[in-house]
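FAQ: What does the model actually see?

It sees only this:
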Amino acid sequence: MKYGFIKVGVATPKIEVANCSHNSEKIISLIEGAILKQVEILVFPELCLTGYTCNDLFFQDILIDSAREGLLKIVDYTKGTDILVVVGLPFLKDYKLYNVAAVIQNGRILAIIPKDTILNQIDVNESRYFNPGNKKPELIIINDYEVPFGTNILIRCNNLSKLVVGVEIGQDLWSPISPSVNHSLRGATLLLNPSASPRIVGMTKFRRDLVSLQSKKLICGYIQADAGDGESTTDAVFTGHNLIAENGKVLADDISNPDEIMVSEIDIEKLHNERNKSSIFRQACSNPLDDDYLILDFSYMDKDRQVDLTRYISPSPFIPDNSEDRNDRCKEILSIQALGLKKRLEHIKVSKVVIGLSGGLDSTLALIVTKKAFDLMNLDPKGIVCVTMPCFGTTDRTYENALKLAEYIGASLREVPIQDAVIQHFKDIGHDINNHDVTYENAQARERTQVLMDISNQVGGIVIGTGDLSELALGWATYNGDHMSMYAVNGSVPKTLVRYLIQYTGDNTDNKELQKVLYDILDTPVSPELLPPVNGEIAQKTEDVVGPYELHDFFIYYALRYGFLPSKIFYLATHAFANKYDKEIIYKWLRSFYYRFFSQQFKRSCLPDGPKVGSVCVSPRSDLSMPSDASGTAWLEELDKIKHCL
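And it is asked to produce this:
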């Protein structure tokens, strides 16, 4: 249960309708396969022991008795195993027939949970056979054992207390107030749904969207097992559309091949952290809740086992994997940035802005956003005053790109060489110009900021900040240098996303010359260009000093978005970057990240305003309320515990 992952599986057996002996053997075979895959929770479809399409055969005692025998055979097979299994079957109690899910583990039936929403419509008439289950649990006898029977039952894991399992069946999910809502408010973090949905046009997308939305709304894991092609095709076709979702993200989605197991992992710890941060969820939990709930406990024998991840861990969590989604995201982010700047300009009634244009990624994005804001306000782009300030480290490549970029955008351009001013400053403070230390570098950054601020006063405008989220998280900014501006449009955009926003702009512009410049900027190494070039090439590469931004953005996402332990972030990073960085490199830069993050909060405590574009932000006014002098010792010590992994 290490790191809070639970390995889950969904299986659709190729059944024979009304042949419970055959079906129970198929189910046992799949349980055996799931155990080999280290699955800890396995879900089968609704009524899979008999088949969903038995119709009036449900009135036959022999079918109901056979289903019970098949259930007991499955229960007996699970003796000595850890796996939690959910199987659907018809169940007779007090002369009433119920559509139920049996929850089984280690030779025991933990609970029998009846379906709550019984369909009565043209194509499906479950009410002809089945009764809605009682919500309040009661004890029934199965083979001399007392078993809880009822809808309001949750099953909690002793080894991982954040894992609380709730069950609803089929169209229970479609109910306006489904059982899963109450289950979640009572603490369920993982919802299981044995289902049987005939395949009709549009149903696949509908089910996917519904499961995804429910998992997002309830901040839970949601697993739905669907009946497959062993069902009768008298009037309907069943295709086994199985789903595994987590907090709105579909982890696995497949039209199942019969007798195969779809596997993924649910991050229970992440769900728990999300709920803790959600005021909406906490408020819902504070409302009066139904007291007729029974919480049952179960255990896994190996409480410290580590799950082998099969789910995809994206190395770029800020960026959608799908190209269409990525383009939509880029378009939306650029719009948010531009609208934020538009509002600020309208409020302070100015039509001029000043941007320090270096020919690098961040200032390029700031210029793109500013041009978009000017377009929204119908302002002349000449009111965008781009200032290039060459000094000791400026290369011809970035200088030329800055000039071309301003020209193709249609902005004004001013060149203010700062070399002489910085040299004079070194004389004034008694600094040796040959000593290329932090004073040498920061003096240039602060001189540039002074120039920008003074020009903004000249033209009656404001300075647009260019620094991004990644730099702010690491403190990679000169205090009162590039750290400061009058509106910081990139402040919540991580470096990896900056690249995609520029790529998106280049891909979608009709100006081929502008496109060419943007693509070259993307190919230029990230650098503040504060040290003299070597043979005309950039000598100072930021990622050689602070580490790869793609690693840091990964760390930022999981540290700030979910509050994961450093050891868990390391574990995830070793999966996400398995083919690119070895464990020693990841560990090195993760330690560096935590050291810099804690030591540089004082810079973030006084940041200028800027638009929030995503779920991770370091603004001291809303997203990151953190003491400037908090110690990072506990985080670094926790990271020390995994040195043996290297």
